[in-house]
Design brief:
Elements (H helix, E strand, L loop, with lengths): L6 E6 L5 H5 L2 H4 L4 E7 L3 H11 L6 E2 L2 H6 L6 E4 L6 H10 L3 E4 L7 H14 L3 E3 L7 H12 L5 E9 L2 H9 L12 H17 L3 E9 L30 H7 L14 H4 L5 H10 L16 E8 L4 E7 L6 E8 L2 E6 L4 E6 L5 E4 L13 H16 L9 H19 L5 E2 H5 L1
Parallel strand pairs: 1-2, 1-4, 2-3, 4-5, 5-6, 7-10
Antiparallel strand pairs: 7-11, 8-9, 8-15, 9-10, 11-12, 12-13, 13-14
Helix pairs in contact: 5-6, 9-14, 10-12
The protein binds nicotinamide-adenine-dinucleotide.
The site of nicotinamide-adenine-dinucleotide (NAD) has 26 residues, from helix 4.
Length: about 425
């Protein structure tokens, strides 16, 4: 195929993902990607992207609905709106003839995942899902060790997703993903990534699944003595509360604006994070609410057990209750095991009776920013597909290979709500 760079893109939703993650790739790879059109109701965000990337005014729309009602304006549409908007924007963009980069989750209902699959097929368009972890060097190293066969055949994989106490409070108690009816159930919203890499590492579809989990802690009955409705409203429990908003957004040495952090999560409270704007947001906005007095309903811990079609056993545990975020993975194989810690960026490959190989992913000389380097590499591969090779790479997160994670999530959630009874994936796929 003749090279057709730059690939032109139309970005729908200029939030944390659309503006702060994917649009930036037009600066990093200007010869490969050009932003041709954008859609965003928030004027400040829309104008910021218009000015930074030179998007013509008549190519700046207030909504994705408006943008996709026009004839096709670019090669690929990046769908970066909130979870429940994905299906509407994805189907409209496909019908207008765009290929897609689609943020996860694909959609929040099984029938909507199927609708997107059918529409993509009918229109002959490709859809790449932002399961960015598959592109992160950390996961590449694990997958390559399995493929080389030096640890034998995979028998079991255990994955632990540590959401982290403040990330849970920020996104899943106070923030955008706190309620299922406004976003998605926790396993789909947060862990479709984990289910996706379990499918990818095992190389198997799931045969059956069971799950337990609950919203154990962030409930009104766990509020400490003297807790106020807002952290800044004279809360008597403030000093000893790790979830205190002033600690998270002002003073924490990694996340607080006073420690110099003007990126995530502070930039979710204000487009211009300063001590004054963050204080204002904590005093009046949703991120200053007591974590025991929010309208949240998604779980804070969940376990999922999977039997894959070849008998491989996979297990995922997700929990809010860890000091930091990150993922740890153990692959137990017939001739060795692999232990990997994404927070430390270390992968240990341990053939039975042989010498352990310890790989420090941080020393491989790869960019690890944004989901361990996954965000940028996803876009790079997408641009190569559309601008050069014309076909997806083997590990690419196509809709076909990404949907399995969602089917497992829907089945696991069904199990969790049904007291943990096993669900046959056959019944879900039919
Ligand atoms: N792949 C990942 O690892 C990853 C990480 C975080 C979030 N996400 C997903 O990415 C998506 C976006 O998340 P985010 O954090 O950027 O959210 P966000 O709320 O920061 O951004 C969404 C943007 O869409 C805009 N919007 C609302 N209605 C619109 C419409 N009709 N047309 C166009 N734009 C509209 C909003 O104003 C907002 O700016 C979510 O589905 C989220 O679950 C994925």
């Amino acid at each position: 195929m003749k090279q057709q760079y730059p690939v032109t893109v139309a970005i729908c939703g200029l939030g944390s993902r659309g503006k702060d993650t994917y649009a930036k790739m037009a600066q990093i790879l200007p010869e490969k990607m050009r932003i041709a059109a954008v859609a965003e109701p928030d004027e400040e965000k829309r104008c910021a992207v218009r000015d930074l990337y030179g998007v013509p005014e008549d190519m700046c729309f207030h909504t994705g609905e408006e943008m996709f009602a026009r004839e096709r304006l670019a090669d690929v549409a990046f769908i970066c709106t909130q979870d429940r908007q994905h299906v509407g924007h994805a189907v409209a963009a496909l019908r207008a003839g765009y290929h897609l980069l689609l943020e996860k989750p694909i959609a929040v209902a099984m029938e909507d995942v199927r609708l997107i699959e059918r529409t993509a097929q009918e229109m002959g368009r490709s859809v790449v899902v932002c399961h960015v972890l598959r592109y992160a060097p950390f996961f590449e190293v694990i997958r390559a060790a399995i493929e080389r066969g030096e640890v034998g055949e995979v028998a079991c994989i255990q994955a632990l997703e540590h959401v982290g106490y403040w990330h849970q409070a920020h996104s899943f108690v106070r923030g955008n993903w706190r309620r299922e009816d406004e976003s998605a159930f926790m396993l789909l919203a947060k862990c479709c990534h984990d289910l996706d890499y379990l499918v990818w590492l095992s190389g198997q579809r799931c045969a059956r699944v069971s799950s337990f989990g609950s919203l154990r802690h962030f409930r009104p009955e766990h509020a400490p003595e003297g807790a106020a409705a807002r952290c800044t409203a004279g809360c008597a429990a403030k000093d000893s509360c790790p979830y205190d908003a002033e600690k998270i957004y002002l003073t924490n040495e990694k996340t607080g604006v006073l420690a110099g952090n003007t990126g995530w999560p502070c930039n979710i409270l204000s487009q211009n994070p300063t001590e004054a704007t963050i204080r204002e947001a904590i005093e009046h906005g949703p991120y200053g609410r007591c974590v025991y007095a929010c309208d949240n309903d998604v779980v804070d811990s969940q376990i999922v057990n999977m039997e894959m079609e070849d008998g491989t056993l996979c297990q995922l545990m997700m929990t809010a209750f860890s000091a930091h975020g990150g993922r740890t993975i153990r692959v137990m194989s017939t001739r060795g095991s692999i232990e990997a810690d994404m927070n430390e960026n270390i992968v240990r490959i341990m053939p039975f009776g042989g010498e352990a190989q310890v790989i420090d992913v941080a020393k491989l000389g790869r960019d690890l920013a944004g989901h361990g380097g996954g965000d940028g590499r996803l876009v790079e591969e997408l641009l190569t597909m559309h601008g050069d090779t014309g076909r997806p790479t083997a590990r690419m997160t196509t809709l076909q290979s990404s949907a399995e994670s969602h089917y497992i999530a829907f089945a696991a959630e069904q199990s969790r709500r049904n007291g943990g009874a096993a669900v046959e994936m056959r019944s879900v796929r039919e």
